Recover the amino acids of this structure.
């Protein structure tokens, strides 16, 4: 196997094992069964709660408090355009690429398979210095944080929790942003297409995408916004289809719209696309250099299309809605305070829909950003629903656990850890609110481009992080 000669071989063995099992968010039955079977084979106590979270417990050194290792078992499933990979049945094809571990043509699932692999490897060790270890593997973190929101406190014994869902080695997170989703919809009316019309397709592809929390500060392009930016300048058109984005927490890397226009406007549209494409590529040449924008004439001519007024209103609303970083934190320097991601746009079952994801460290700013997004669509006559709100994780500057982690990181590496907050949503704040007295930190190895086909993990960083985690547990 690709991991046979690697350090921390058990970690990679378990990472491969769960990569063989489909585990898209909401489809965790297979990996849950694997975890339960794994624990029972080793006489490790294992339970599941009503929502499907898995909790393991292993006794350790007497006199030491139990420590909970926490991560989520689900992953975001994204595949490269043209890939035939089926996430409901096909294993993730893990590839060792020098010092990096990737997947072939799909997201890797190191977010958060690395937490599961670390925890299983540690639970299997029989070091007498280890404290009692608890492992909490949640479901549906990537969709609505469903598992964390339904943790049953009476099943959790630990009051110290180490979340392994961060993506930068040497950074200890003690707080995170809260989130809120904005769902938009409108039932559309169709009209017959004029005879002197042409059917065109505008496609945006090749964007880096990525995690809408962890990578929003990189100012990458959003395919849905680029689509609206270009079409905003078109002469009158009628949509026949529009699709963009895959997940609420993924920056859209591709989008397209098909539409009909008067034949006499086709040349004007070609010129507009050509000119704006040059501008966009110049603007994003550093942070998103692979953008591809194409316009093509389609041979088929549908009989009907969405009415002009509704088509234009939808594009204008996407164009107007705030996207990307909205404010930087003044209390935690270098951290994004508020952002929005125009995540998904679609035409399906006679409705135009959009889903947007707002995040903020400040509850009032989260609400204000979301309302601004909603206002853009309401102004254009769309129904707006706000839901799936979750709280921010407020940092505890007096945390004994944080102080100990910082101390031991210095002892183990000789370097100072960075203690800060993250803009991405973590489960710690929710779990802390449900389990009285819980104290949490979040750590992890270097991961890159999560929630995208370019996701990869740095091997050396994972080995170092596993070594530190083992050292930390024995010192607690």
């Amino acid at each position: 196997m690709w991991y046979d000669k690697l350090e921390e071989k058990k970690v990679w063995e378990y990472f491969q094992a769960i990569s063989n099992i489909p585990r898209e968010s909401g489809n965790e039955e297979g990996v849950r069964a694997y975890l339960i079977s794994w624990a029972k084979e080793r006489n490790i106590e294992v339970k599941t709660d009503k929502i499907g979270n898995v909790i393991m417990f292993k006794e350790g050194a007497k006199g030491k408090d139990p420590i909970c290792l926490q991560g989520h078992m689900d992953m975001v499933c994204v595949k490269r355009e043209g890939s035939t990979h089926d996430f409901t049945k096909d294993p993730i094809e893990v590839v060792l690429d020098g010092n990096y571990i990737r997947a072939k043509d799909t997201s890797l699932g190191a977010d958060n398979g690395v937490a599961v692999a670390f925890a299983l490897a540690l639970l299997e060790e029989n070091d007498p210095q280890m404290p009692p270890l608890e492992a909490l593997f949640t479901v549906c973190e990537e969709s609505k944080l469903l598992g964390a929101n339904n943790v049953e406190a009476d099943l959790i014994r630990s009051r110290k929790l180490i979340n392994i869902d961060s993506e930068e080695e040497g950074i200890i997170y003690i707080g995170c942003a809260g989130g809120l989703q904005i769902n938009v919809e409108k039932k559309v009316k169709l009209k017959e297409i004029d005879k002197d019309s042409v059917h065109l397709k505008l496609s945006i592809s090749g964007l880096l995408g990525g995690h809408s929390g962890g990578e929003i500060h990189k100012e990458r392009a959003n395919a849905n916004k680029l689509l609206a930016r270009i079409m905003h300048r078109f002469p009158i058109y009628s949509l026949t289809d529009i699709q963009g984005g895959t997940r609420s927490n993924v920056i859209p890397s591709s989008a397209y719209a098909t539409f009909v226009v008067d034949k006499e406007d086709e040349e004007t549209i070609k010129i507009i696309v050509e000119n704006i494409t040059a501008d966009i590529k110049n603007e994003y040449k550093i942070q998103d250099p692979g953008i591809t924008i194409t316009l093509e004439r389609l041979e088929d001519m549908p009989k009907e299309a969405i009415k002009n007024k509704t088509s234009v209103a939808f594009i204008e609303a996407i164009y107007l809605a705030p996207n990307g970083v909205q404010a930087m934190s003044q209390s935690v320097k270098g951290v994004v305070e508020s952002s929005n991601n125009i995540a998904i746009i679609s035409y399906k079952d006679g409705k135009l829909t959009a889903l947007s994801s707002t995040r903020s460290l400040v509850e009032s700013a989260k609400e204000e950003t979301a309302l601004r997004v909603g206002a853009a669509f309401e102004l254009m006559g769309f129904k707006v629903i706000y839901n799936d709100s979750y709280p921010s994780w407020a940092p505890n500057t007096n945390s004994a656990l944080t102080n100990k982690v910082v101390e031991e990181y210095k002892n183990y590496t000789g370097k100072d850890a960075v203690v800060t907050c993250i803009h991405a949503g973590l489960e710690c704040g929710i779990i802390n609110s449900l389990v009285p007295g819980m104290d949490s930190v979040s750590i992890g190895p270097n991961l890159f481009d999560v929630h995208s086909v370019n996701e990869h993990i740095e091997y050396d960083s994972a080995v170092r992080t596993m070594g530190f985690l083992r050292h930390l547990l024995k010192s607690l």
